Amino acid sequence: MTSRAGRTTIVDVARAAGTSVSSASVALRGEPGVSAQTRERILAAARRLGYRPDRQASLLRRREPRVLGVTFSVEQTFHGDLVENLYRAADASGYDLVLSAKTAGRPESRAVDNLLRDRCGPLILIAPELPRDALAQLAARTPVVTIGSDSPAEGVDSVHSDDRQGVTDAVAHLVGLGHRRIAYVDGGTAVMSATRSDAYVRTMREHGLDEHVRVISAAPTEESGIEVATGLLDGDDPLPTAILAHNDLIAVGLLLTLRSRGVRVPDDVSVVGYDDTRTAALATVRLTSVSQDAAELARRAVERATTRGDDPAQQIVTPARLVVRDTTAPPGR
Question: Which part of the chain is the HTH lacI-type domain (predicted)?
Fold first, then answer.
């Protein structure tokens, strides 16, 4: 069957080949993004139907920018690192980015809606908090890739670092230095908070430190780190000799507060963060932290967003790496 006026369109080709229109378009333009088998099926259907591309429509498409939509949180330093690397990766693939921020007064759903209204192509969502069913519904409309979440949704590609290994390595580093009273400050409702907290508890138990397991509830902000440090200093219990934080923001809040109250870091208390942000590497901070490798996460996310085609969604896990700096040392040094 052909479209009106007897002219075969790309919709007819896609229907005959049993693929999506976007896959048919990719194959007919000779671009990467579909499997060899799918490409041949589409080309065979085009030949059989006598398909000829609409030159005017083709010209209009070429004028359209190749754009990826990205959501991120303005409150999270690591998201800024990711966005910078996403620009690099997108540029290398011939794409540009449109950013839509999540803020205290601008929920993630609105950030996504704005990208859809701007008619962006695939979407890359950094640490999304949308429910799985909402992500799946979104993926039915446009390709979706998440960064920094290990909670997969149907049809959604996921790219994240091995957070369990990252936390395991951080705890092992502290144990190797001689620490036993190692506390963990979690990220509250933040994405990956439960994963990292569970990894801490498991690793402490594997090292025979069950009696020293201590998870402190917090939020993924510097202010929360300040509050936790103040509570520890003003409390009746002895200070832990080491503290591992959900992210660098919390760790910096802890670090600055401890130092301002006369606690020597790392001599009295060692501090470890997570994300290895630019702040962690500052000469005045020199924070030991777990790196997620923002450049690799961005590269893999852009790769999936721009070349997935009809491939099934994937969950891609990249290595985490402990970066040791000046905020960890043996206890009571």
Answer: 8-62
pLDDT in tens, 132-191: 999 999 998 889 999 999 988 899 999 999 999 999 999 999 999 999 999 999 999 999
170 and 286 in a common domain? yes
Would the CA dihedral through 186, 192, 198, 200 be positive or negative? negative
- Counting the structural domains of the chain, the total is 3
Q: Rounded to whole angstroms, how far apart are CA atoms 73 and 79? A: 6
191 and 226 in one domain? yes
pLDDT in tens, 59-114: 444 444 589 999 999 999 999 999 999 999 999 988 999 999 999 899 999 999 99
Count how many Cα atoms sit within 13 Å of the Cα of residue 220 in the half-sphere of its side chain.
23
Burial 62-99 (b: 16+ CB within 10 A, else e): eeeeebbbbbbbeebbbbbbbbebbbebbeeeebebbb
36: domain CATH number is 1.10.260.40
Alpha carbon distance 313, 317 (integer Å): 13
